[in-house]
Amino acid sequence: MAESKQFVETYLREIGVQTPVSLFTSEQSASDQSASGQSNLRPEILVQQTDSKVHSPAADASAITSPAKQNFEVKADVPAVAKSVSGGLSDLAVKASTCRLCSLSQERNQVVFGVGNPDADLVFIGEAPGREEDLQGEPFVGRAGQLLDRMLAAMGMGRNEIYIMNTVKCRPPNNRDPKPDEVQACNLWFEQQLDMLRPKMICLLGRVAAQTVLKSDEPLGALRGRWYDYQGIPVWVTYHPAYLLRSPGQKQKSWQDLQALLSGFQKLN
Ligand code: URA
């Protein structure tokens, strides 16, 4: 608890906010957003007609706008590796661990499948494992992962309440962007994994994850601030923590994204 409070304070200091979290009430964030031209941060779902997998948002929109329900109960804290797999997801992780569907398998140390609570309502999706992740076999364990932890803590969440995965499960050499054929090959695991998780909400971290999942070539700046629909699941887009490490000036905007995500999440049943 004390550690979590410290995370929050550290993150808020990083993004230039010196006030306690309690000052970020919904009214305050709404006026902040409209003052900064971000009044479109509403839980409305944009239908992406280009993606055949995107379904009508009507049912989801009603879920999203239904009365607020707090959804942040802390679930059992079990070891990270055990948390990352269970039942069908466990079998899928085992099958994925020997995948040779693309050339990334030649240089990887291990397949980085996913981590967190398999029953989580909220899933965060990044791009692909980096060096640390490839060595440890767990997503977001390097510097970007530490920042992600602080971002989560600022939202009042911990890794035990959410699930974290990547669009591509093996590390691209020198952390280059995954190539289209690698993304396509890994889609086999990605789609089954999300199908088993069936979260209530998805947050895409960064341009590569956003463009991949939303099948878009728009820049991240254009993709932020709107709700999307992936197979009936509301999807939100925000900056990748690795980008925020390189561009700390964008952390304030990322905090606006996270508040909007949290607000949409709290309205879910
Ligand atoms: N960046 C990602 O997109 N995913 C990771 O797991 C680590 C860094």
UniProtKB/TrEMBL annotation:
Catalytic activity: Hydrolyzes single-stranded DNA or mismatched double-stranded DNA and polynucleotides, releasing free uracil
Record flagged with keyword Protein biosynthesis: no
GO molecular function: 4 iron, 4 sulfur cluster binding; metal ion binding; nucleotidyltransferase activity; uracil DNA N-glycosylase activity
Keyword Hydrolase attached: yes
GO terms classed as biological process: DNA repair
Entry EC no(s): 3.2.2.27
Uracil-DNA glycosylase-like domain boundaries: 113-259
Primary enzyme class: hydrolase
InterPro entries reported for this sequence: UDG_Type-4/5 (IPR051536), Ura-DNA_glyco_family4 (IPR005273), Uracil-DNA_glycosylase-like (IPR005122), Uracil-DNA_glycosylase-like_sf (IPR036895)
Keywords assigned by UniProt, alphabetized: 4Fe-4S, DNA damage, DNA repair, Hydrolase, Iron, Iron-sulfur, Metal-binding, Nucleotidyltransferase, Transferase
Family recorded in the similarity comment: Belongs to the uracil-DNA glycosylase (UDG) superfamily. Type 4 (UDGa) family.
PANTHER family: TYPE-4 URACIL-DNA GLYCOSYLASE, TYPE-5 URACIL-DNA GLYCOSYLASE
Designated name of the protein: Type-4 uracil-DNA glycosylase
